[in-house]
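<backbone_tokenisation>
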Amino acid sequence: MLRDPHDALWYNSVTRPAIDDGRIARTAVTQGKGCWVQDAAGTWYLDARAAMWNTTLGYQAERVVEAMCEQLRRLPVAQVIRYEEPPEVALEYARRLVGTLPDPLNHVRFGSTGSQMTSAAVLLSRFVRKVRGETHRTKVIAFTNGYHGTGGIASALTGERQMHALQAPLAPDVHHVKPWNLDALARMVDRHGPERVTAIIVEPIMGTDVLAAPENTLRQIRELCDRHDIHLIADEVTTGFGRTGVMSAMIDRQVLPDLLILGKGITSGYFPLAALVSTDAIFDEAIFRPEYVFPHGCTADGHPVGMAAGMAVLDELADGSLFAHVRRVGERLRERLRDQAASTGLIHDVRGAGLMIGVELRDGDERPGATFMTAVRRACREAGLLLTTTNNTLVLMPPLVLTEAEADEIVTRLVRALGTVTAGRP
């Protein structure tokens, strides 16, 4: 039995007393407009985290809404994982999606979440090895502090020690090295044996603390993979679909992965959807022996409503103007934040690309701890600004339709919140 109506949901990082005093009911979000959301108490907030980094077109993308409604009227449900009757809209969207990507990224598999697709990428890499007869080739290398989702293989790929401790035992044969340390990566490959490593997975810009790959690093990882016939998996769940001002951060750097994972902005968050795109070579090997069938898929994969939402998003991105807008407004936001660094006494670094921005905080030479960062996040909320905190970094991921005036407002509210926290310290 449920003792309290709030027991019906599992709230992340919410204590029992916080639920009992009704705070969650008051802070529940009731509506959104553009880059803003309103809670049940009537307060409007500038959403600099775009829900969970995924509401890229904001809260009133009418083209997406209309496409979903029309699809619901025409064909509300179908499936793609068995038999031979996929929804026509899934075939159309698959063609359009791969049409935005360069050769040889010509094949796509649809899922519901980024976590599902990162797991699928590893499973597909290992499956291709089995088809080849390389059953010993199972190891995957990822980076510490990288984030690739939760559950199953995704939790193992994610390089967060706390998550590993809480979710252990983890899926085996996943190993981690420090971010962008090419020497450590090469040593890891040698230590385990290149003939036993199936894939290396990277985020071109790591969502945790917004750490971009240094110049030429992705290219050198690609070369390492080519030397040893290792699959390069690019996790662009966050960086794709315009978040960094381009469709794909990897492709913008002219580094083609063997497997590309897309999510979040793929439907602007309006429908659960993610995608795994593979090269011709991976696809051809996966289907080379008909007695081997890739055993992966879920009931809602390729859901027609999600396909319709995805096509509407591609329509919004088609002329490239939103990409240019993201680059322009993102640069303005970073410059304004840097201008305020000295006055706050806390902003140590501002980095990122497009509207994927990390604001690293330091108190002198010290990195603020979890308690301080929680205080900052709450002060920002009191100032009417929603954002994400990771370690000692504030992560700004507003909707891509953010205006220049709203970018300035983010800075104003953030600086105000930092001043409140600083003034309240002993």
DSSP finds 17 helices and 17 strands in the chain. The two ends are 46 Å apart (CA to CA). The domain at 5-60+320-423 is CATH 3.90.1150.10 (Aspartate Aminotransferase, domain 1). Residues 1-11 have pLDDT under 50 and may be disordered.
